[in-house]
Amino acid sequence: MYIIKRLMEVLRDQTGHTETYLPDVMTISIQDKSDRHAAVTDPEVNTFHRAIASIVVLAQCFGLLPVHGVTAPSAQSLRFRWASARVVYTAFVLCLLLFMVLFCSLYTLQIGGSFQDAQCMIFYGIGTATYAMFLEIARRWPRLMVQWSTVEQKQSCYGPSRRLRLKIRCITAMILSGAAVEHLLNEYNNLKFAAQQANTTTSIIRQYMLKSHHHLFNYVGYSHACAAVATMAGALATFSWNYMDLFISITSIALAERFRLLNRHLQNVRGKTLPGQIWKQIREHYTSLMDLTDTLNLCISHMVLLSFGSNLYFICLQLFNTLGRLAKWYERVYFYWSFGFLILRTVTMSLSVASINDESHLPRSVLFAVPARGYNVEVSRFLQLVTTCEVALTGLNFFSVTRTMLLTMAGTIVTYEIVLVQFSHNDS
Amino acid sequence: MYIIKRLMEVLRDQTGHTETYLPDVMTISIQDKSDRHAAVTDPEVNTFHRAIASIVVLAQCFGLLPVHGVTAPSAQSLRFRWASARVVYTAFVLCLLLFMVLFCSLYTLQIGGSFQDAQCMIFYGIGTATYAMFLEIARRWPRLMVQWSTVEQKQSCYGPSRRLRLKIRCITAMILSGAAVEHLLNEYNNLKFAAQQANTTTSIIRQYMLKSHHHLFNYVGYSHACAAVATMAGALATFSWNYMDLFISITSIALAERFRLLNRHLQNVRGKTLPGQIWKQIREHYTSLMDLTDTLNLCISHMVLLSFGSNLYFICLQLFNTLGRLAKWYERVYFYWSFGFLILRTVTMSLSVASINDESHLPRSVLFAVPARGYNVEVSRFLQLVTTCEVALTGLNFFSVTRTMLLTMAGTIVTYEIVLVQFSHNDS
Amino acid sequence: MYIIKRLMEVLRDQTGHTETYLPDVMTISIQDKSDRHAAVTDPEVNTFHRAIASIVVLAQCFGLLPVHGVTAPSAQSLRFRWASARVVYTAFVLCLLLFMVLFCSLYTLQIGGSFQDAQCMIFYGIGTATYAMFLEIARRWPRLMVQWSTVEQKQSCYGPSRRLRLKIRCITAMILSGAAVEHLLNEYNNLKFAAQQANTTTSIIRQYMLKSHHHLFNYVGYSHACAAVATMAGALATFSWNYMDLFISITSIALAERFRLLNRHLQNVRGKTLPGQIWKQIREHYTSLMDLTDTLNLCISHMVLLSFGSNLYFICLQLFNTLGRLAKWYERVYFYWSFGFLILRTVTMSLSVASINDESHLPRSVLFAVPARGYNVEVSRFLQLVTTCEVALTGLNFFSVTRTMLLTMAGTIVTYEIVLVQFSHNDS
Amino acid sequence: MYIIKRLMEVLRDQTGHTETYLPDVMTISIQDKSDRHAAVTDPEVNTFHRAIASIVVLAQCFGLLPVHGVTAPSAQSLRFRWASARVVYTAFVLCLLLFMVLFCSLYTLQIGGSFQDAQCMIFYGIGTATYAMFLEIARRWPRLMVQWSTVEQKQSCYGPSRRLRLKIRCITAMILSGAAVEHLLNEYNNLKFAAQQANTTTSIIRQYMLKSHHHLFNYVGYSHACAAVATMAGALATFSWNYMDLFISITSIALAERFRLLNRHLQNVRGKTLPGQIWKQIREHYTSLMDLTDTLNLCISHMVLLSFGSNLYFICLQLFNTLGRLAKWYERVYFYWSFGFLILRTVTMSLSVASINDESHLPRSVLFAVPARGYNVEVSRFLQLVTTCEVALTGLNFFSVTRTMLLTMAGTIVTYEIVLVQFSHNDS
């Protein structure tokens, strides 16, 4: 109580002849009354933990992110235990995919290792790595979410984000439905191809399985049970590959949203004279967001590298492989959808991650506009923080995901594509 | 009044034994007397709003930038209304160009999509995007110009720029006349080609239209009315493409000129001991220019990206397409003019935009040369501002347009050209 | 005594109502009691000089790093003398390798200089350069190690590193055993090839020598003595090439470990209010580590450049040369082992060197988290140091070895590989 | 007098219990006694103006850098006059070379413009541009040299540089003799080729002229007078091309030497406590060196761009053109000498220019090592200067010449070479 009183005095002294300034909390309370009201009645609704719950539950159906307490109201309830059914399920899927990688590798080595055969090995390899990484993330997830909740509670004065839930739902719907359509088109293509070489339903399925999993049935005899397992493995790998991008996008957007709320508050006090105490508070909020970014980076930077690498690889290869070899209309439809969706998903994921960096730069212009009499050591420290630290998710610290880096990546893709297409042209 | 008196006292105290210094406003008033006299008698003449008026009017003849109040003496009169004849005109052109894109796309897909056919689709695509972007800019134009006018009024102590109007006229004349010559040469080429295959005037025109718009007449039957519309669409797309570069150049030059005026003033006080109050004023002027750059960037960064992308694409492709296939002298003349003009326009535009960044760096050396006794917290803040903030227009925040970036782009063009030319050589 | 007393007072005043803080030395002493105990009983055991002794002795068996006093307990005993048996040995090996380079050059010029023949010349050239560089390093080694020891003694309050010795041993074992296997596989390949063209043991050896050293026996007649010398030269060059990477890795890891110990201490005081005196001490420790990095960089930056250059060259060339020309199983085994080991060694070396840079950034976040009342000019100076200086080993100052640079290098390799593979494909 | 007395007091107070420190000037006077003695007896001997005099005179023999007063003892005597015999001579050479460019262009256009023919046009184009640029530099030379002299006089306390004259002579001797040998080898090659097709001396010369200047004699009839003029034009262009690199190297080395002298002084005071007054003086010296760099950059940045561009072009092209087409031994000798010399000259020039940037970074570590009690606002300003300003010559502000940039250029050359060589290989 004494502190607030003292603060008000300081405030009154310092702001003397300038614009009157309603202290931090009041400004917000007037402006976002409706929001805050909702927040008070149901304080847990707008946490990130709650917002992401359903998406994590979906992942757990496919064996990803095996933590307990996902649907609990508070992040404190999250637990990771090695000895749990969810981890066993994940381990089982991991083994299944490892087997697929093994068979693909054997096949590739035996055949001689062209790019097209290696593609299968790489696809299952990415799937396996994704499952392993989500297991690793699951171990760190409870701590991360507790830190996140603490940040959200401490910074609840900036109000909740109304747009976050909507954004998360849109991206989830877009990526998952797109992936489903792509998977179905792929199956249709394979079935159509199989139907050309067989006439009974059973033999069509047999033919289809032999085509789409020839690396497996080359070593084990064909059986329907085995075919079912292989189909499941394919579906799981496809899902995990898509979910990886979705997961990175969502966490990035949620983090960027925290920065955005802080920036919105800063815009409100642009050009005003605030006491050092309030600058100190905002600076500490910014610092805790930076720490949260570091923690998140520690958790998912492996996955960011894998995601960028695999998307880069498949964009280059898919265009190169398919160019000029599309005879049938359904082949074309599959190719355009598949390629367009790949590009769209990569761009969505990239821009989501880069938005953290974008938002983190914005306080700069507000801080430079602080009037001369409001300038103090806290503003100076905040400014140094904002101008010298790069806040961004990284790919295992090899690169920071910023807009500039995305342009570099796009340039790399174009260069590789030009060289590869020229190769393919000379070849034929 | 009290403040000025106080300031003079501070001034007298601080400058004690050093060079006597005439306060800011006086120095300027003596030096630029003639300029300031003109400025007083007709204060509105030298605003950017007035300087660009005729060029915006020209754009509106072609349906670009549909705002009202362009020729009014003050920027306050600018208005954008959805329900106005100008917006309807713009919307009509937009629809026309969209139709052209549609026909080109259909044709390209049907033929199979070689690079040369896609060129037509991309050309009209760029035209459509340009019109859409200018519509978006028009919405933000009134606010931008009001902010610009405010900056000009507040910084009128630096005197008006005599060179700005001249520069704008030179660039406009150069780009528009160059584009006109290129367009005529192109038509001459097409007519000449048509004349080889027909003998009556009507049939020549018919032949010419069929050649230059075969993607259209492949779907709709030939008619003179249709041909006229197609010709108009081509002219509009060509104009908008050229105007885009012109518009970016002019706004950039005008902004860079504001920085240049501030720098000229700074050069005058180089090495002198000024009171903090004056440094504060200059710093705030610089900050408001930075804010203006941010606002301008928000308006036209989409267009900068489109402009750089399209120029990069056409430079690479035009050289590649035409190399070694120029039989007739008029084909050669057209190619050399067209390519030379494309390079010239791109370089002009790039250097204009980069000049903002160039000028924004210059205060640095003056600030480092501030003598020890004139150094205070305001100089320190100004220095931090200048050394840590990159002031530049960007391409949708993916890249800042600086001289270094232009070199990178030139290097990219050379690399692509080498690979593509090699491709073409091996091919034949 | 007075100073400590005074310090305690300052401490008590400053930390007033915040977390109580045990002064620097105490915290450490409690936490790392066991370590410090060990350190007190045998203070020299954990120095870098002692840790690297056995590895330097191994190098001296092959004529590298000819200094005296390597096994002495203190770095003070290290001496370099031109007139010593070790230097004479080194000079002899250097001459031998120079002869090999001469013969290879002659052969390459005579044949006409294809890439594959130049490879032998480059291999021996790298070997010669390595020996010359280690001679240069040997001259500076005593001074470097004395500086290193001083740093270790002054910073002994951070405790010894238990992991350093283990890390050094692991990397040594990995690189040397890997290189041995690779060398044996290579010899086996050559012998197998020779065995196809001869039947008696003597003639096999003769054939084998003629194949693997044809550039030599083309000029001098075959003799068993000559063959033995050539074999020795090959082994020495191979060892020196591998040892170069090992040496760079080990020194880098040891230096990064010093930064890591300092960072561990900083993490312990995160968010606490320390007196300026203690910040001053930590800053000076950090500065002395920076100076040590500079000294080390002066010693081995030539070698870093050579190492990166040669690895880049051999990775590109080996893949290109061998692709699709592996008929026999032992050829395949040799190729995969050789290529995998080359990649592994390069990555190990690169990440070791980059870890110095990684560790040097970490104090930043602790310094930004210093609470407002603990912020003083020392923290500010430390922060400026950390944010503006890039601490890293360099390749002759042409590039700093950081994680970002490693990504650039990887991208370059991929680009070159794509172009070269395309070349090879079109060729056949 | 009072100030010095006061300063000594401050000094005594501040350095209290630390190392005793002899004020700036004394330290120097003791250390460099012999140097300073020489400097006092003949103060003008060691100026850059005197050191470069003979090299400028040499240039004037070939019509470059037409200024008056080059051999005068003081830089104050330098004058540039449009109406002088030297400028007329330069203008004459410029016209001559312009004619050659004209004939080459005509020939290239007529033939069809292959790379090899364009080479001649580009060679004379570079020569013409060099003469024009040296004319421009001549206009600014007097002012630059006066500024340079002022800096040298004000910083004479750092002692003269003994190594500068030696360095300048070595580089001059190396580049000019290398260029002479290359020119003679080229003539020998051409004569040898001519001798194969003619038998009398006159006809050999005729044949030789026709071969080496076919672009000229294709338009004007052959005459000995005309041949003499053409030979002279060739020699002038060759000289100017080599002299350009030499000139850039020498001025860069001289400037870097000034930074080196300042750094040597800084190393002497490393870790000592100096009063702010002395730091102020050193900082101002550093600032004036930065200003000198800016002025020099304004003078020769055009030439730096031209030099880098032309060297990059000729390195790429010469290797590509000649590869695998060297039948005779003298052709090989010419090629290896020419290519080796080109690389050597480029590397010398690049490293000379980059050395300015290298030296400008060195004060940083000294400033960070300033002890806590010697830290004041002057040290802080100096530090900010050193850490935020990049001091380097630039290529027309498109790139700063630093070591990092040289590596990028080397990488670009290798990439282009790989693509071009592949092209050449597929071609044949």
Explain what you see:
4 copies of one chain form a homotetramer. By secondary structure, chain A is an all-alpha fold. Chain A has one domain (31-427). The first copy, chain A, contains 15 helices and no strands. In chain A, helix 5 (85-111) packs across helix 10, helix 10 (224-268) packs antiparallel against helix 11 and helix 11 (276-322) runs parallel beside helix 14. Chains in contact: A-B, A-C, B-D, C-D. Chains A and B meet through helix 13, helix 14 and helix 15 of A and helix 11, helix 14 and helix 15 of B.
Q: Assess the beta-strand content of chain A as a share of residues.
A: under 5%
Structural class of chain A: mainly alpha
> Overall 3D geometry of chain A?
elongated
Structurally, the number of domains of chain A stands at 1
Question: What is the C-alpha radius of gyration of chain A, as a whole number of Å?
Answer: 26 Å
Averaging pLDDT over every residue of chain A, what do you get?
A: 85
The count of DSSP E runs of length 2 or more, i.e. the number of strands of chain A, is 0
What fraction, in percent, of the residue positions of chain A are helical? over 70%
Low-confidence stretches of chain A: 10-41
Terminal-residue CA separation of chain A: 81 Å
- In N-to-C order, the SSE pattern of chain A is HHHHHHHHHHHHHHH
* Main sheet makeup of chain A: none
Instruction: Tally the helices of chain A.
Output: 15
Oligomer: homotetramer
